[in-house]
Specification:
24 helices; globular; heme binding; 618 residues; Peroxidase-like; mainly alpha; oxidoreductase; binds protoporphyrin IX containing FE; two-stranded antiparallel ribbon
Length: 618
């Protein structure tokens, strides 16, 4: 194997690795990579995607940035233009975002589940685990001397906490190459995460080959390991009741906790559902491939099923999920999706397989349209019960209790998301981490992270995205409603002080879509980078083991409705466009009316030849 410095991407000596071993920093600071083979498929650890720079694309490698960072002295968050402190994050959150639970009549909860699943592919848990598990004390005396503690102050006239008397929200800094000890502290903080940067279903297959081999593969029929409990198929579970990750399981009755290659599947309610479905979907594909190609080995079945599963996830993100928020025509116009359905090859080896730090950051806008409840329905569409979504975090056991999984599955395409309307659900803004933290406002944390990441002011991103310079609050007319401009004027002294996320919260939706334009811009910037920088991009005809035109045409048929028909519990009827609520032009129908992938397109003629000759073996 060859050793690379995770930060710089250059090779390092065994001696240097030993130093990292001694300092206990090898996991984060070093990538150990087997030599690349240009003809092999996508590696689980993301390495060798770029053949010139093999470690780029692997886990814990640096983010890119759409715009360079700005910090104050000692890399602390920047000040206002006049040198004073910027307004408190909690104050901005309560001033700019109203609180309420208003169900969307358009988008389903399923759309939000898929959105968060897409985010989970490229981020990791540790920044949040840090303040839930390791540093729950940032608001206490002890927090004052801990560099990692950056709690958020609550102003005395806070609309909620003027009554409770609470003045502090726990939070820690993002981990960086500097905080971990990979590089010196006198450089600009560079965030570090354990996921691979490209969209490759990290939540299902993990980020390291060893974990996939140990925890994932069944080594039979190309399948992932699975268990059956009460007639339902699950990923394997941790053998002990007391496993650390499913902290919110209510014992003794709730014991299930997925033992997947990575722990992400156990985190949020939406991620958990999607993980169960995509885990099963791998095996669904493997079985179909094995039926068409009885001569294929376990390895061949596994790798092809994985490649198809990833392609299905990508097809659904790009062609079904995001168009409902962004507008199909906008995405075609901006070159994110192709209307022709054929191959598409925009690969450029000079663009590194990286994620912009802005991308997962702005995805936090989706917190504003997360409904606080998971509603459950039976298969005939009768409402049964509900549970606060914040109580499902780190609680896989609840999904396995009684028929909850069936009811949540049915609910996912019947319940609305929260409306796109400048309001956020009160559970998200007051108790975001459920029983795991006494108080938490996810969106205050989001705004505070905006500053810790050192993002340039909103006006600079407007210029980056749309080319227009914003010099005064009045220049915001047209992009932001007048009453919200008035609030911005009240809370910020200068237009240059407006934080990126604060403005995204109040921007008017883009024409032809339902999302803030700057959010759209920074998301599609990354969606395009994915296609350009990923040598294994599923639409490419020139990649190792590329799909044939006929196979790609089958992938194009993938929809979330078909996926739920194939692997969702009790799903026999669903609306064809299941990210949108059922209704006119999108009536519920029988699953057999919903088109799916025909695996005959993967038929391998050599299997027939083999089976012909096998008759003459004796
Ligand atoms: C039950 C609902 C949800 C809960 C409890 C939740 C919780 C959290 C928490 C605790 C954080 C870390 C905040 C911090 O930086 O300190 C976070 C970040 C984030 N959330 Fe959510 N979230 C929810 C829904 C969603 C949804 C629907 C999306 C969809 C896109 C989403 C996307 C993100 C992203 C992209 C981040 C940033 C992650 C990172 O950069 O590490 N979340 N969320």
């Amino acid at each position: 194997a060859i050793y690379y410095d995770s930060y710089s991407g250059s090779t390092i000596t065994a001696e240097r690795v030993k130093q990292h071993d001694k300092a206990n920093t090898t996991f984060w600071c070093v990538n150990e990579i087997e030599p690349c083979d240009p003809n092999e498929g996508r590696r689980v650890d993301g390495s060798c995607n770029n053949l010139q720079y093999p470690s780029r694309g692997a886990s814990h490698t640096p983010f890119a940035r759409a715009l360079p960072p700005v910090f104050s002295a000692n890399f602390e968050p920047k000040k206002a233009a006049d040198g004073s402190d910027l307004p408190l994050a909690r104050f901005l959150r309560t001033s700019l975002v109203s609180v309420g639970r208003i169900p969307s009549q358009m988008f389903t909860a399923l759309a939000i589940h898929d959105f968060v699943f897409m985010s989970a592919d490229i981020v990791s848990l540790h920044d949040t685990v840090n303040y839930i598990v390791w540093k729950p004390y940032c608001c206490a005396e002890r927090g004052k001397t801990d560099y990692m503690c950056v709690p958020n102050q609550i102003p005395p006239d806070d609309p909620v906490h003027r009554f409770s008397g609470q003045r502090c929200l726990n939070m820690t800094r993002p981990e960086t190459f500097q905080t971990i000890g990979c590089i010196k502290n006198n450089t600009s903080p560079e965030r570090i995460v354990s996921s691979t940067p490209l969209l490759d279903l990290s939540v299902i297959y993990g980020n390291a080959l060893q974990s996939l081999l140990r925890r994932g593969r069944l080594f039979e029929g190309g399948m992932l390991k699975f268990e059956e409990e009460n007639g339902r198929i699950w990923p394997p579970k941790y053998p002990t009741n007391g496993h650390l990750i499913c902290l919110s399981n209510q014992r003794p009755q709730e014991t299930r906790c997925h033992l997947m290659p990575e722990d992400g599947g156990n985190t949020l309610g939406g991620i958990n559902l999607m993980s169960i479905w995509f885990w099963r979907h791998h095996n669904f594909i493997a079985k179909n491939l094995a039926a068409v190609n009885p001569c294929w080995t376990d390895d061949k079945l596994f790798e092809t099923a994985r490649d198809i599963n990833i392609a299905v996830a990508l097809q659904i993100y790009y062609y079904e999920l995001l168009p409902v928020f962004f507008g199909y025509d906008n995405m075609v116009k901006d070159g994110v999706i192709t209307p022709t359905g054929g191959f598409r090859d925009v690969y450029d080896p000079n663009v590194m397989p990286q994620v912009s730090l802005e991308y997962p950051f702005v995805l936090r806008w989706v917190h504003t349209i997360q409904n606080g409840l998971i509603k459950m329905y039976d298969k005939d569409g009768y409402y049964m019960k509900q549970v606060p979504v914040v109580n499902l975090t780190l609680r896989t056991g609840y999904f396995a209790l009684d028929d909850n999984l069936d009811l949540m599955t049915q609910g996912s395409f019947r319940q609305g998301s929260d409306n796109v309307d400048y309001t956020a659900d009160f559970d998200i803004t007051e108790i975001g981490l459920g029983p795991q933290q006494y108080l938490s406002d996810l969106m205050t944390s989001d705004l505070a992270k905006n500053r810790l990441f050192g993002f340039q002011p909103y006006v600079k991103y407007r210029e980056f995205c749309f080319g227009n310079k914003v010099k005064s609050f009045d220049d915001l007319h047209g992009s932001i409603d007048p009453e919200r401009i008035e609030i911005l004027k009240d809370v910020y002294k200068s237009v240059e002080d407006i934080d990126l996320l604060a403005a995204i919260w109040v921007e008017k939706p883009l024409r032809g879509g339902y999302a803030p334009p700057t959010f759209y811009c920074l998301v599609i910037d990354q969606l395009r980078r994915n296609m350009v920088s990923d040598r294994h991009w599923y639409e490419r005809p020139n990649r190792p083991n590329a799909f044939t035109a006929a196979q790609l045409a089958e992938i194009r048929k993938a929809t979330i409705a078909r996926l739920l028909c194939d692997v969702g519990d009790t799903v026999t009827r669903i609306q064809p466009r299941a990210f949108l609520k059922a209704g006119y032009n999108n009536q519920m129908c029988n699953c057999n009316e919903i088109n799916g992938i025909n695996y005959a397109a993967w038929k391998d003629a050599t299997c027939e030849v083999e089976s012909f000759w096998s008759k003459f073996v004796y």
